[in-house]
Amino acid sequence: GPVLKFNNVKFHYDSNREILKGIDFEVPAGKTIAVVGPSGAGKSTISRLIYRFYDVIEGSVEIDGQDVRDVTQKSLRTAVGMVPQDTVLFNDTIEYNIRYGRPDASDEEVREAARLAQISDFIESLPDGFNTQVGERGLKLSGGEKQRVAIARTILKSPPILILDEATSALDTQTEQEIQSALDAVAQDRTTLVIAHRLSTVVNADEIIVLRDGKIAERGNHEGLLAQD
Ligand code: ADP
Ligand code: ADP
């Protein structure tokens, strides 16, 4: 069966305005499904429901056939890795932040993840730029650098289910292309949900879901959806 499944999911935040109005989709094992759509459509809300930052109002989210409400936080966090749009880092070294989720990783594995995410130069630093090894203040990490730390963490963790929520949105074009290929390598053969703004960034998805105003407006593959544009 599918590894990740949304069954008629309805959701609203504190105000009663409905954000998701009955969403159905599934991600089969090892496949990549992309959710695209305009800002405010409800894309990130989908990722938050999987990670249980919030719970559905109606319907259900299932992982391996189990309602996420019946899964312990620990096994949910082990099964699912997420690169969020805005990364908040612990006020500890970048190395600590990369290891978060896999403290057992070897130094070599940490260095390799840092290399792929292009943050090798500052793994001894704190998010505010203080370098713990040389005891000097460097540059405060930018949004893009924090995003690369989250990417390194996820590469290291290599979870069975991967959620990439506009995971390279804070990066410049050149860095984005390089890091995207590192992420593609992690996503290969893994159950992956990609959230993106533009259709052009999800060429490799097995299926693309177009979300508009909390509903699935269209679904198909890249060529098919481009043809309708
Ligand atoms: P997208 O990722 O497609 O841009 P989101 O899922 O982030 O959309 O948001 C969908 C809608 O929900 C938006 O209208 C947004 O303003 C609203 N929203 C998002 N987070 C919250 C929140 N914590 N409380 C109330 N409304 C929210
Ligand atoms: P926790 O394991 O503390 O429950 P979550 O798993 O809920 O944290 O958070 C989702 C992801 O967001 C984590 O895997 C981690 O990557 C990141 N994260 C959560 N809280 C923090 C934090 N305070 N500082 C840095 N990163 C965090």
From TrEMBL:
Domain ABC transporter: 4-229
Compartment(s): Cell membrane
UniProt family annotation: Belongs to the ABC transporter superfamily.
Name this protein carries in UniProt: ATM1-type heavy metal exporter
Complete-protein stretch covered: 367 to 595 of 638
